[in-house]
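Here is one chain, start to finish.
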Amino acid sequence: MYVITAPTSTIGRDVVADLLDRGVPLRLVVRDAARLAPEVRERVEIVEGTHGDPDVIDRACAGAEAVFWLAPGNPAGADVHSAYVDFTRPACEAFVRHGVKRVVGISALGRGTPLAAHAGPVTASLAMDDLIGATGVPYRAVTCPSFMHNLLHQVGALKEQGMFFLMADPDLKSPMVASRDIAATATRLLLDDTWRGTGEVACLGPEDLTPAEMAETLSDVLGKTIGYRQVPGAALKERLTGFGSSEAMAQAMVDMFDAKNQGIDKAEPRTAESTTSTTFRQWAEEVLKPAIRA
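Its structure:
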């Protein structure tokens, strides 16, 4: 039995689909089973509730061979430590109690860099990895830069203003990764019963791009001029709190993007193994363009 947390998230949905395609028995931990597609519900076991709840994750891990772990990072949480590390503590106890053979989690780049000490969700994700690794359960952290799918939050701005807005320096080249490539890496690791111990597997995407280069690609794909505007940290924080984020979590996001602007996502050397296949142009054609035209 394979346990999948956050199965309705962008990455989680792809992991579920990949494993179902391979006929793997799945148990999904989901707050609301109605959010699962009917064709998924009829093929899986379901444990309803949050995977941060000790009773829920304990039931989910009973008899589990492997677990896909994704902490949701509650925007309204008290702080990033509680949203990632404290949220994961009950799961760590369940992994040990039930003898889970391997855990694959979604995390961030930056381990071993000075920037990782004050990088908001990055810092908390790395601490979460350490917590899981300390249990002795074999663990692989899939470490990622910024996700291409975050641009889906800006469909309205792209349609109505021909613009997208980030905190990123317009001239900073950084890796980006597609969620389906992250899911493919996680699926491969979940199915591979030969690895042991703890470690990281980076997913860097096939290219480093500046926001200005992204705007050029989007202009070409969408057939209209797309511009980019850098958002100051104070403005991002105000926007996030306006959408319901706590002060601490909003500041943590600003800290993360500050670290990205200083190059934290460039600390991992690009290798053939860490370079995934989906280009930004391909993702824009196949995912963003249909979303904008919907």
